[in-house]
Specification:
- This protein is mainly β.
- The chain has one domain (about 1-140): OB fold (Dihydrolipoamide Acetyltransferase, E2P) (Beta Barrel).
- The chain has two helices and eleven strands; from the N terminus they run E-E-E-E-E-H-E-E-E-E-E-E-H.
- Strands 1, 2, 8, 9, 10 and 11 form a six-stranded mixed β-sheet that branches.
- The longest helix is centred in the last third of the chain and has 12 residues, at about 125-140.
Length: about 140
Amino acid sequence: MSQLLPFKLGAEVYALELIDVQEIVEHCQLHPIPGVPETVLGAIGFHGRIVPAIDLPLLLGFPAGLRSERMIVLTDEHGPVALVVDQLLRIITLDLVHSVLSQSDSEKDCIRGVLNRSGQMISMLDLAQLRLLLQQICTGNGDRK
């Protein structure tokens, strides 16, 4: 069984495996970083480290809007980075081994597959693809805003 942290981006539900999440932080002061793409909202202080805060909905092509005051800080293996989402949902437990995980066709959508949980579609975020997309955007080689 795997624990998932679901969250909303627009009307869609995405999720991360809880093992990839270091912490959920709340009410962090965002410090601006000059000259970064609009998807980088700024940086937060996190346990003595400076961590970039990424507007995940904007990065993945969702419209700008109100975001949750809580951020998902990824584990060191995938970070340091804080993901800002529209809304965090309650942790769920699923048996990913026996779940039908349909593969995404696009290389740039950062989805490693889609789960059907009682009729609700949950897109599993691909952190390796997300990291590549962030690198492309931050170095000016990406084709997204």
